[in-house]
């Protein structure tokens, strides 16, 4: 083919003349002219910023995979040309990225011989979804073996394999095929909070998946929403606002397609300004405790590094009292020791927990007791010196520990004949290396004060974090889901413990809840369900999959916090995720997680409601 041999010849010579922008971009991620000098590139100036010029080809090809846009990196040149000029220039083709885990941006460096051919030409943005196809909604890259959450992670790199772009199939390919182009996104909604630079994720008026009732996009099975794009730094030097939130309506946004900081982004002409603000009001849980075994309420809340003098402690109290409506039992995570994040050897958290309890009592008159086990100093991960741990808060007028026998930090809890627990509460397998730098699961057994003698087992978990994961839109495929293998070992240990209880009593009431740092459809949790025999409470009560979220990260509302239950807890179960934090802007969020509340019938066979089988 003529074009190919021309490219080959150019590569041999180390330079090439009169190459089109589409030829420079090629139909893959890495330019065929990488590190070559090209001459007489011709394009219309569609936009400029303080770093350079955005060009659009005046001689487009017919191939939707080859972008007709190109960034020319040079601040001086940006001052010498105007939007609407058609120019020619020579320069070096460079693949640039600021971090080894990012996808490269194709750009021209060291432009010379810049000539204005004509001025005042019309500059019309491509409307996404009208002048282009729709962004694909499910898959990010052809290299994602097993999908976006495939394991093992990082078995391939976009930069080294340099796959051919298939913009109709893969989200990253779609945006790469528009890199450098001048585009308009119609009817944009914000689906994230701003990061420290004011960047936000948005969706436009094209078909999307995972749309939740608040306007965000929820991660679904194998689908982490590649149809979205980041809005980055405005071209005119203005700044995006920092007080915006998921669900804000932004109207139309025009700018250029770029890639940096691990995601495709549109650099808008000017800063965002919501035309309609999303509500942040979320109602209280819709059900209350019955006070006896027919309807015990259970809350779950990662309170994000709670210490005695945390400014957010009174706000956590307000949530527990007015939104969770003082559940009978609360699974807390990220409770810090009495000296908070001071790295001083203190591990006791009785001051933190007593402070929380007394403020709840002041606000509601309701008295909570607590049960927890301090970790060994700095052995459970999290903020150094903070010694975060899980704790149970419980109303002793409704629920009490069954045969309390507090375990020590290193005591290994066991399922005894009954079944009952050796330590109550006690930590599961605390010496296993699977829990190094991670929170040990806290198992407990309870009895209701009124209504039944059947005991109720709980395990409060906070699995190892995802910190260190790579961008879903980054170079490594599938992206690194940091800690995924370790979480699978952790969930297996907890699941074996549950299975042991169920082998003694298949009708046992068991609830495993907390911050799993993982999505229900991913390995650690599918393994957990299959070994333990427990069911995701979302499934039991039938919560709409798009409303299953407790966290907001990058473009996705997602569920890291879960409740898993045994068969005995299915009957009459209720469950609600309270979006008290994911709907807020940065200043408004009390914790980075949303709390959830459930209600269970623990009466078992003695329940008034239970019909004897006939
Ligand atoms: C992918 O890129 C990373 C970071 O540059 C590198 O460490 C790794 O070896 C690469 N892996 C493959 C499969 O090319
Ligand atoms: C949205 O809220 C911000 C404050 O966060 C306010 O300045 C702005 O006027 C509001 N916009 C609209 C359209 O109500
Ligand atoms: C739950 O209790 C609160 C406070 O007593 C009350 O305001 C609310 O109406 C109750 N909700 C239901 C569904 O009974
Ligand atoms: C916390 O525990 C210590 C040691 O047992 C005790 O001296 C102190 O009074 C407790 N503080 C609170 C607020 O319960």
UniProtKB/TrEMBL annotation:
<dbReference type="InterPro" id="IPR036691">
    <property type="entry name" value="Endo/exonu/phosph_ase_sf"/>
</dbReference>
<feature type="signal peptide">
    <location>
        <begin position="1"/>
        <end position="18"/>
    </location>
</feature>
<dbReference type="InterPro" id="IPR005135">
    <property type="entry name" value="Endo/exonuclease/phosphatase"/>
</dbReference>
<protein>
    <recommendedName>
        <fullName>Endonuclease/exonuclease/phosphatase domain-containing protein</fullName>
    </recommendedName>
</protein>
<dbReference type="GO" id="GO:0003824">
    <property type="term" value="F:catalytic activity"/>
</dbReference>
<feature type="domain" description="Endonuclease/exonuclease/phosphatase">
    <location>
        <begin position="313"/>
        <end position="593"/>
    </location>
</feature>
<dbReference type="Pfam" id="PF03372">
    <property type="entry name" value="Exo_endo_phos"/>
</dbReference>
<keyword id="KW-0732">Signal</keyword>
């Amino acid at each position: 083919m003529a074009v190919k041999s021309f490219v080959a010849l150019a590569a041999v010579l180390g330079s090439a003349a009169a190459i089109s922008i589409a030829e420079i971009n090629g139909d893959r991620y890495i330019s065929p002219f990488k590190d070559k000098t090209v001459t007489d590139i011709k394009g219309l100036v569609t936009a400029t910023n303080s770093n350079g010029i955005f060009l659009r080809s005046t001689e487009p090809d017919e191939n939707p995979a080859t972008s007709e846009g190109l960034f020319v990196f040079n601040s001086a040149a940006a001052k010498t040309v105007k939007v609407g000029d058609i120019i020619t220039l020579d320069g070096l083709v460079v693949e640039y990225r600021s971090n080894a885990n990012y996808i490269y941006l194709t750009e021209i460096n060291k432009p010379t011989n810049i000539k204005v051919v004509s001025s005042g030409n019309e500059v019309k943005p491509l409307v996404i979804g009208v002048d282009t196809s729709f962004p694909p909604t499910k898959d990010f890259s052809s290299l994602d073996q097993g999908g976006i959450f495939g394991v093992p992670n990082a078995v391939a790199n976009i930069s080294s394999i340099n796959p051919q772009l298939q913009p109709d199939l893969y989200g990253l390919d779609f945006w790469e095929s528009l890199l450098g182009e001048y585009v308009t996104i119609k009817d944009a909604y914000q689906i994230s909070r701003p990061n420290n630079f004011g960047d936000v994720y948005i969706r436009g008026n094209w078909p999307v998946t995972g749309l939740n009732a608040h306007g965000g996009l929820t991660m679904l099975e194998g689908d982490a929403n590649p149809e979205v794009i980041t809005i980055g730094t405005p071209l005119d030097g203005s700044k995006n606002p920092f007080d915006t939130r998921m669900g804000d309506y932004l109207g139309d946004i025009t700018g250029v397609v770029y890639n940096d900081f691990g995601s495709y982004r549109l650099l808008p002409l000017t800063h965002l300004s919501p035309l309609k603000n999303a509500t942040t009001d979320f109602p209280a849980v819709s059900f209350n405790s019955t006070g006896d075994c027919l309807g015990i309420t259970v809350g779950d809340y990662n309170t994000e590094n709670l210490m005695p003098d945390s400014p957010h402690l009174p706000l956590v109290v307000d949530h527990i009292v007015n939104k969770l409506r003082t559940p009978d039992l609360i699974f807390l995570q990220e409770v810090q020791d009495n000296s908070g994040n001071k790295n001083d050897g203190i591990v006791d958290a009785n001051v933190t927990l007593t402070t929380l309890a007394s403020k709840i009592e002041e606000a509601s008159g309701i008295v909570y007791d607590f049960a927890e086990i301090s970790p060994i100093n700095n052995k459970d991960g999290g903020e150094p010196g903070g010694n975060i741990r899980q704790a149970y808060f419980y109303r002793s007028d409704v629920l009490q520990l069954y045969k309390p026998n507090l375990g020590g930090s290193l005591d290994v809890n066991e399922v005894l004949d009954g079944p009952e627990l050796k330590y109550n509460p006690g930590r599961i397998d605390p010496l296993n290396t699977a829990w190094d730098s991670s929170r040990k699961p806290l198992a407990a057994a309870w009895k209701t004060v009124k209504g039944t003698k059947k005991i109720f087992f709980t395990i409060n978990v906070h699995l190892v974090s995802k910190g260190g994961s790579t961008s879903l839109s980054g170079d490594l495929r599938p992206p690194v889901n940091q800690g995924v293998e370790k979480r699978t070992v952790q969930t297996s240990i907890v699941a074996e413990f549950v299975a042991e209880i169920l082998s003694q009593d298949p009708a046992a009431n068991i609830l495993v809840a907390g911050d799993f740092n993982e999505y229900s459809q991913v390995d650690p949790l599918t393994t957990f369900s299959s070994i333990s025999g427990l069911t995701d409470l979302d499934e039991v009560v039938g919560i709409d999959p798009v409303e299953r979220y407790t966290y907001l990260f990058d473009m996705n509302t997602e569920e890291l916090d879960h409740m898993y239950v045994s068969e005995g807890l299915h009957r009459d179960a209720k469950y609600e995720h309270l979006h008290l934090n994911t709907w807020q802007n940065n200043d408004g969020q009390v914790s980075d997680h949303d709390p959830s509340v459930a209600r269970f019938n623990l009466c078992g066979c003695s329940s008034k409601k239970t019909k004897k089988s006939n």
